[in-house]
Structure prediction request, 223 residues.
Amino acid sequence: MSNGARLLEQMPLTAPELIAALAHHEQQAAVLALAVRRLENAGTFGEYGAVNSAAWLTDHCRMSTQTARSWVHRGRFLDRYSVMADAAVAHALSADQVAMIQRLHRPKYEQLLGDDIGVLAEVLAPLTVNDTATACNLWKQKADAVIKETAPPVDKERSLSMSRAGDGALVGRFELDDAAGTELEKAISTALTFEGDDDTRTLAQRQGDALFDIAAFFNTNHD
Prediction:
């Protein structure tokens, strides 16, 4: 009897047998992903001249590049979070549930995910795949809120470009955020002068003179 025939004789024939067989398949897949990671850590793939583990899987296991990378990434994820490895090998979480959590493993979430991974595994274990997707999305939203709340304030963008014209005049353009603009307006208003009805300067000229006075005052009082 051929090996193929023997395997066909072992084919699950009932729904419970198929469920058990699929669970065993996913457990074995988790173990194999961890094995890929172990060989990667040991540098074994380099002995075969492969540039990386995914390339070795592509060349020697007849995998597509996408499938090979999927194995590598799953192995790295399970190796990074032992609670995920335990849940996958014990099939407390299905392969699809693990994949949904794995998609949260991004640099921006790494610290928060590391803190919550144990709770996530426990909470998601009894859920359906659809409910797991919903729960992961809610976790992501909360994580985004925490990151936004704790992120350092973004520096306001301010710019000033100046150059000398042919007659020696300084011309330029500036762009200030609201806070800086308010400060400049207050300074101009404070330094603005008006010499009564005999003052023939336009408002623009008076503001220019005020800016000159501000710069001169600053330079006079600072080395």
